[in-house]
Amino acid sequence: MLKSCMSAPPAGSCDNHGMPEGQEKAATEAEASPSPANGEAALKLADNSRTFTFWQRMQIFLATWVGYFAILVIGRSLRWEVVGWENWEAARKIGKGLILTFWHREIFLATWFWRQRGIVVMTSQNFDGEYIARIIRLHGYGAARGSSTRGAGRALVEMVRALRKGADAAFTIDGPRGPRFVAKSGSVLLAKASGAAILCFHIVPRRAYVFPRSWDLFQIPYPFTRAAVFVAPPILVAPDADDAEQARKLQEVQAALDELRRRGDAWVVAEETPDSKIENRK
Length: 282
What we know:
This protein is α/β, with parallel strands linked by helices.
């Protein structure tokens, strides 16, 4: 299994057990380079149709800039380790775009790691979704406004169009309100409609603050901590997949994310155990 370390761009530190030179170059270039269809200006995504009160707009404004700078400052300090980058390369070779699929609690870390690629993310139309959409736009994403409970059809149409224009897409697959770690069908539906590959990933920080009252146990990593990204093999959905096949593919997505989370938990334990850490780096 490929196990590697790389720093967040443009530069940073990396342990000496890195990936082979060619693969390290490919991974670094993929992380640093924006997508050809970069941002909403190129894709002309629709704005949020929901209106907010003056007080809500003020809160959204403050949350947007606090969130943007928090991700920028903390993200620059993190040290990254990547496991399974060859799966990203395999998915990219399919040539029909990627549907990045991950858990809602990882938004902070994922926003920094995948930034400036023009990835289109389904973002809910509610209050929380509004400031999240504004934060990710500032980091080079597009926001298709909708969720599993409101506006999902329109958002999926926009994401299909984005994929066909060369952008990638992303889902927080248990959002917007859970249940936590239970995958919903958005990625499977989008893969069937677009032919794009589902690429499940999991990001885990060594040390983070966890919001105990949030439904997803949302995480914000501590500055200068290590973080690991685990990437699963791509999942394809046939354009003529019936309901039973779609259900099987959803189970495959769930199983992939569960396995990545298990590996992430093991990585944290190994990071905290000096003997295990040494053994893993032989």
